[in-house]
From TrEMBL:
GO terms for molecular function: ATP binding; protein serine/threonine kinase activity. The lineage of its organism: Eukaryota, Viridiplantae, Streptophyta, Embryophyta, Tracheophyta. Residues 293-402 form the Disease resistance R13L4/SHOC-2-like LRR domain. SUPFAM superfamilies: L domain-like. This is non-specific serine/threonine protein kinase. InterPro entries: Leu-rich_rpt (IPR001611), Leu-rich_rpt_typical-subtyp (IPR003591), LRR_dom_sf (IPR032675), LRR_N_plant-typ (IPR013210), LRR_R13L4/SHOC2-like (IPR055414), LRRC69/RLP (IPR052595). It comes from Rhododendron simsii. It is found in: Cell membrane. Its EC number is 2.7.11.1. Residues 65-102 form the Leucine-rich repeat-containing N-terminal plant-type domain. GO terms for biological process: defense response; post-embryonic development; response to other organism. Keywords: ATP-binding, Cell membrane, Glycoprotein, Leucine-rich repeat, Membrane, Nucleotide-binding, Phosphoprotein, Receptor, Repeat, Signal, Transferase, Transmembrane, Transmembrane helix. Pfam families: LRR_1 (PF00560), LRR_14 (PF23598), LRRNT_2 (PF08263).
């Protein structure tokens, strides 16, 4: 009541007219309000300012942490390697050599292939590079292990640390990289088994683990990689069988498992890989027969099954592989005859069946392979005569028929093979004379006809083979004199006539 009256009077108060407590109450109350407002304003201002600048500050800290992570890794590398990264300094890390950033200046690419880096990955804090999409450190001198922390790079689509000196095991955490499309750990010193967690990488199109020292079996989980196009595990110490689950890889175009210690048979399911272009399983311990289902691989251009323990006959279905350019089955235990269906392989340039136990005659249909440059049927049990149709193989440079039981005469048509460089017919049961048409083979370097039952004289036309370095005619029934024309063979190194 007193306060309201004082405000209404609007008179300058005097000590006599104003009660004693009124002025003290008003003064104290006003001062409290003023002080409160003065104190509150900076807090409100500070709070608004912090809210407005939180995001840029966080971004700055994030950028700094990425730069720090990279600089720390640089400092952990050997001295000469640090000089290769001289641009990694106090400037913006997005301008550094090998670094790629997105619009928010976050590191997305780390590409330092083939620059000679020497050091380990242990000094690189992957947790501070959460936006990394591509990591390429291939063809350097990086050693040590692959850190398990690499599994935290959830955005990574490409990981290439091939051609280094990495050792130890492939960490199971690799299976956490679910965005991964390309994984290349090839040409290192990695040991241990392929982790089953690799089956989690459903987006993977490329898996290269070749030329390491990996052991154990190929995990069934590989069959879960249904996007896979390229699978190369060659030159390791892998054992066990080829998993049937491989049939799920319907997009696979390349399957290289050679130079391991794989055993068991080639699974029938391999015939389901209809996109396959190259299949190389050579130099393993594979047994059993070649599955007829292989005939389903109509896009196949290369088939290498040599240096195994395969048995049984060559299936007729091989003749269905009309895209095939290179067929190599040597150094196995194959029996039976060479199928006539082989004549369908009109694109074939290389055909090698040597070092088997094949029998029967050389099919006439072989003469239909007009693209052939390399024909090797040596060291088998082939009988019958050399077919005249062989004269159709005008592109042939190598013809190996030695170590068989071939009989009859050398066909005149052999002289049509004008591209021939190496002709070996030794250790057979060939009879008759050496055809004069052999003089047409002007590119011939090696001619071995020894250890047969050839008769008649050595034709003068042999002297026309001026590129010849090796001539073997010994252990035959040849008669007559040595032709003077043989003196034309100025490059001759080896001459066997006895």
């Amino acid at each position: 009541m007193q306060r309201l009256q004082l405000l209404a009077c609007r008179k300058k108060p005097t000590m006599a007219s104003v009660p004693k407590r009124a002025p003290n109450f008003l003064a104290v109350h006003s001062k409290i309000i003023f002080v409160f407002v003065i104190i509150l304003i900076p807090f409100v201002s500070s709070s608004d300012s912090a809210g407005a600048h939180a995001s840029p500050t966080t971004q700055t800290v994030a950028k700094q942490s990425e730069a720090v992570a990279l600089l720390n890794w640089k400092a952990s590398l050997e001295y000469q390697s640090q000089s290769l990264l001289s641009s990694w300094n106090e400037t913006s890390h997005c301008t550094w050599v090998g670094i790629g950033c997105n619009d928010a200046s976050k590191v997305t690419n780390l590409n330092l292939d083939s620059i000679g880096l020497r050091g380990t990955l242990s000094g690189l804090n992957f947790s501070l590079l959460p936006h990394l999409v591509k990591l390429d450190l291939s063809n350097n001198l990086i050693y040590g292990t692959i850190p398990s922390q690499i599994g935290g790079l959830s955005r990574l689509t490409s990981l290439d640390v091939s051609i280094n000196r990495l050792s130890g095991r492939i960490p199971s955490e690799v299976g956490m990289l679910r965005s991964l499309i390309e994984l290349d750990l090839s040409m290192n010193n990695l040991i241990g088994s392929i982790p089953t967690s690799i089956g989690n990488l459903k987006n993977l199109t490329t898996l290269y683990l070749y030329e390491n020292s990996l052991s154990g079996s190929i995990p069934q989980e590989v069959g879960m990689l249904k996007s896979l196009i390229y699978l190369a595990l060659y030159t390791n110490n892998l054992t066990g069988s080829i998993p049937a689950s491989i049939a799920n890889l319907r997009n696979l175009t390349l399957l290289y498992l050679y130079k391991n210690s794989l055993s068991g048979s080639i699974p029938q399911e391999v015939g389901m890989l209809k996109s396959l272009i190259s299949l190389a399983l050579y130099t393993n311990n594979l047994t059993g027969s070649i599955p007829p289902s292989i005939g389903n691989l109509i896009n196949l251009t290369l088939l290498y099954l040599y240096k195994n323990f395969l048995s049984g006959s060559i299936p007729q279905e091989v003749g269905m592989l009309k895209s095939l350019t290179d067929l190599q089955l040597p150094a196995n235990n194959l029996t039976g005859s060479i199928p006539a269906s082989i004549g369908n392989l009109r694109n074939l340039t290389t055909f090698r069946l040597h070092q088997n136990s094949l029998s029967g005659s050389i099919p006439q249909e072989l003469g239909m392979l007009r693209s052939l440059t390399d024909l090797q049927l040596s060291r088998n049990k082939l009988t019958g005569s050399i077919p005249a149709s062989i004269g159709n193989l005008r592109n042939l440079t190598t013809l190996y028929l030695h170590y068989n039981s071939l009989s009859g005469s050398i066909p005149q048509e052999i002289g049509l093979l004008r591209s021939l460089i190496d002709l070996e017919l030794s250790r057979n049961k060939l009879t008759g004379s050496i055809p004069a048409t052999i003089g047409n083979l002007r590119n011939l370097i090696t001619l071995y006809l020894d250890k047969n039952s050839l008769s008649g004289s050595i034709p003068q036309e042999v002297g026309m083979l001026r590129s010849l370095t090796d001539l073997g005619l010994s252990m035959n029934n040849l008669t007559g004199s040595i032709p003077a024309s043989i003196g034309n063979l100025r490059d001759l190194i080896t001459l066997s006539l006895l």
